[in-house]
Design a protein that fits this description.
With 614 residues, this protein is mainly beta. It contains 3 helices and 49 strands. The chain is elongated.
C-alpha cells in the first residue's frame, strides 16, 4: 500500500530519531541509501532553568502544522531529524511537567552555502549541523477565577514579566510572553505557567488589566491565585521614579487622576476621578476610567511630588506611560495674610506667580531654574499653602473673589520650606448716606457700579453703612436708592481718618423731554447724561416711550445736560443744555435731536442754544 510521503516520514521518525552526538559514532539513518527524503538534521539541547538535568519531551511543529515528539535529557546535545518543510516551532510537550517559550528553527537563516573557492578551485565544505537551545522551566499548574463585569467563557490572557531582568539569563527572559487560558462558564481557569518568580498581568478584551507583581510560582502541583477582578473602562498605568533632589520614595505616595489640567488645581486635586497608591517599585494603575484627556498629580506625604500629562485614554483600553514620572521634592510655602479675613465677610485668594530673579547669575549658580505655572490658593483663617515644585523667585498677590488686588509681596525667593507674610492695607470705612439731611436707605458702590461685589455696601434705615477698602483716596462712589428713585455718582472721594464719611445727596429734580428737531416727535429710549464742567458723568437716565425723563439727586452746581438716540454713538448727541442747579431746585428742559446722516456725522454734532424752563 502506498502511503503519503508525510505519513511515511512520521512512521520512520517514530521508530528512532535521536542520536546522542557525544557518545555515538554510528551514522544517522538518514545517511543510508534508500531512506525517504524531506527531513532535516539539527542539534537540539533542552536547557533547564536552575535545576538538575531531567527527562524533557519537546514537541516540534513543522510548516504544515504536523507535530512530532522529541524525548531527550536536558543539558545534553542530540542530533534530531525533523520532518520538512520548515520552519519549525519547538516547545515542551503539554503535560510533560515543563514550560517554555516557543523556539523557532529556520535553517534558511542559520546555514551558509556549501561551496567556497580555494586557490581558484571549488571545494565542498563539510556539513555543518546547526545547534539550537530550547530554554525550559519546570511547570506549575495555576488556577484562578475571573470576576467583575465580563461574559462567561472566552479566553484569559496572562502576560509574563521578569522580576529582575538585569540578572536573568537572556535565554530565560519572559518579557512579552503571553499565555492564553480558556475560561469556563463560572469564570474559572487553569493553565501551566513557569515555576519561577514573575510579574503577572491578567487581561480580557474590553477590560482594564489587573497586575500581580512579584508573584512566586513554586512547586509542581496546583497553585491557586484566587480571584482576578477585571473591570470595563480605560486604564492608565506607569511608573514613578525619584528625580533630582528627591532622595528615595516618600512614604504614602498616591497618584490622583483628574480630567482637568493640574496646573489649575488650587489647594488640592479638584475633579479627581481616581486615587491609587504607588507600589514600592513605583508602579501605579488607575482602572475603570473614561476615555479622553487626563492628567495626574503624585502626592508623597504632605507634598506634591510631580504633575504629568496629558494622557489620551481610549475607551476600554490601557494607556501605559513609557516615560517614568520623575518625582521632585517640592517646597512648602506657607503664606500668612494680615488681616486674615475681609471684614465684610468675603474671602481672600492668594496668587503665586513666578518672576525673574534679581541676581540671575548668582541664583542660577546655586539653584536650577525652571518655569512654573501660576498657582492660586484660598486663604482660610489667614493662611494659605503652596506646593512649589522647585527653586525660583515669586510674587504673592492677594485678591478678593472678583479679582480686586488688595496687597502683594513683590519679591520672594523660594529655595526650601519657608513662610511669608503679606500685610494688607485695608481701610475701614464707616459712613452715612443722606438726602438733604434725611437718612437714605440704598446701595453704595465704591469703584463704580462695575466694581467688585465685595465693595458694595448697603445703608440701613438710619443711612449708615460699614466695610473695608483696599485704599483711602480717589474713589468713585455710585449711590442708588430704588425707594426714593435717587441715583448719583461722586468722584475723587477720600475716606477720612477717625471720622465718618458723609455722602449727602441734594434733593434736586430735573425733568424734561427729548424730541426730534425735524418732526417734533418724542425720542423714546434716548440716553440723557448729566456732566460736570470737567466732563464727569454724575447722573444718567433713559427716556420713556413718550420721550420724557425725570432725574432726582443731581448734584448742585454747574451742569451740562445732553441726550443721544438709542443705539447711536455718543458723538451723535443732541445739543446740550447748561444750567446751574441749586438745592431743592426743580428744572424742566427740552432737548432736540437733529436728523443724523453720514454728512452730519462727518461735520460733528450741532450745538444750538436751548431754553431752560424753571
Amino acid at each position: 500500500m502506498n502511503r503519503p510521503r508525510w505519513q511515511i516520514a512520521v512512521l520512520w521518525l517514530a521508530c528512532g530519531f535521536l542520536v546522542p552526538s557525544a557518545s555515538s559514532a554510528q551514522e544517522p539513518a538518514s545517511a543510508e541509501p534508500g531512506l525517504p527524503g524531506g527531513v532535516a538534521k539539527v542539534v537540539l539541547q533542552a536547557v533547564l532553568y536552575r535545576d538538575a538535568p531531567a527527562k524533557v519531551t519537546l514537541v516540534t511543529t513543522n510548516g504544515l502544522g504536523v507535530d512530532q515528539e522529541v524525548p531527550l535529557t536536558s543539558d545534553q546535545v542530540y542530533e534530531v531529524y525533523l520532518f520538512e518543510p520548515g520552519p519549525w516551532r519547538v516547545r515542551p510537550a503539554p503535560g510533560s511537567g515543563f514550560w517554555g517559550r516557543v523556539t523557532l528553527i529556520d535553517l534558511e537563516t542559520t546555514t551558509d552555502g556549501g561551496i567556497s573557492s580555494v586557490e581558484g578551485e571549488e571545494e565542498v565544505q563539510p556539513e555543518v549541523v546547526p545547534v539550537f537551545e530550547v530554554p525550559v522551566y519546570p511547570a506549575v499548574t495555576v488556577s484562578g477565577r475571573v470576576v467583575g463585569a465580563y461574559r462567561p467563557g472566552g479566553t484569559l490572557q496572562i502576560g509574563l514579566g521578569d522580576v529582575d531582568p538585569e540578572n536573568t539569563d537572556p535565554r530565560f527572559h519572559l518579557r512579552g510572553e503571553v499565555v492564553h487560558c480558556p475560561v469556563g462558564g463560572d469564570g474559572r481557569w487553569s493553565c501551566e505557567l513557569p515555576a519561577t518568580f514573575v510579574h503577572l498581568v491578567f487581561w480580557r478584551p474590553g477590560h482594564s488589566p489587573e497586575y500581580r507583581w512579584n508573584t512566586a510560582l513554586h512547586g509542581r502541583g496546583q497553585l491557586a491565585l484566587g480571584d482576578q477582578t477585571l473591570v470595563r473602562g480605560a486604564s492608565l498605568a506607569g511608573f514613578v521614579a525619584p528625580g533630582r533632589g528627591f532622595q528615595g520614595f516618600v512614604d504614602h505616595c498616591a497618584v490622583h487622576v483628574s480630567a482637568g489640567d493640574p496646573d489649575l488645581w488650587r489647594t488640592g486635586p479638584e475633579s479627581v476621578l481616581a486615587t491609587v497608591e504607588v507600589a514600592d517599585d513605583g508602579f501605579f494603575q488607575a482602572r475603570g476610567l473614561s476615555a479622553g484627556r487626563h492628567w495626574i498629580q503624585v502626592d508623597c506625604g504632605d507634598r506634591v511630588a510631580a504633575r504629568a500629562g496629558p494622557y489620551e485614554l481610549t475607551e476600554n483600553a490601557e494607556t501605559f506611560s513609557r516615560r517614568r514620572v520623575r518625582l521632585a521634592r517640592s517646597h512648602l510655602l506657607d503664606v500668612f495674610v494680615q488681616p486674615g479675613d475681609p471684614p465684610y465677610g468675603s474671602h481672600w485668594l492668594a496668587l503665586l506667580r513666578q518672576i525673574r530673579e534679581n541676581d540671575s547669575p548668582g541664583f542660577r549658580s546655586r539653584f536650577v531654574r525652571r518655569e512654573y505655572p501660576q498657582q492660586t490658593a484660598v486663604v482660610e483663617n489667614g493662611h494659605a499653602r503652596f506646593q512649589v515644585p522647585g527653586d525660583g523667585a515669586f510674587v504673592i498677590e492677594v485678591q478678593d473673589a472678583n479679582g480686586g488686588l488688595f496687597g502683594e509681596r513683590d519679591y520672594l525667593e523660594v529655595v526650601g520650606d519657608q513662610s511669608a507674610v503679606v500685610e494688607l492695607e485695608l481701610v475701614p470705612v464707616v459712613g452715612q448716606l443722606t438726602l438733604e439731611g434725611v437718612p437714605l436707605q440704598g446701595l453704595v458702590f465704591f469703584g463704580g457700579r462695575g466694581a467688585s461685589p465685595d465693595l458694595i455696601f448697603r445703608s440701613g434705615e438710619d443711612g449708615w453703612f460699614r466695610g473695608a477698602l483696599p485704599g483711602r483716596e480717589d474713589w468713585r462712589v455710585d449711590v442708588v436708592s430704588a425707594e426714593r428713585q435717587v441715583s448719583q455718582s461722586f468722584h475723587d472721594v477720600d475716606v477720612p481718618r477717625n471720622e465718618p464719611l458723609t455722602l449727602e445727596i441734594a434733593d434736586t429734580v430735573i425733568e424734561g423731554r427729548v424730541i426730534f428737531a425735524e418732526t417734533g416727535e418724542p425720542a423714546g429710549g434716548a440716553r440723557v447724561r448729566f456732566e460736570t464742567a470737567d466732563e464727569r458723568i454724575v447722573h444718567q437716565t433713559v427716556t420713556g416711550d413718550d420721550g420724557t425723563f425725570s432725574a432726582r439727586g443731581v448734584p448742585v452746581g454747574w451742569i451740562r445736560i445732553s441726550a443721544s438716540p438709542r443705539f447711536t454713538p455718543t458723538a451723535l448727541a443732541s445739543d446740550s443744555v447748561e444750567a446751574v442747579v441749586s438745592r431743592s431746585a426743580s428744572l424742566t428742559v427740552t432737548l432736540r435731536l437733529p436728523k443724523f446722516d453720514l454728512d452730519s456725522l462727518r461735520r460733528g454734532r450741532p450745538r444750538v442754544p436751548q431754553v431752560v424752563e424753571q
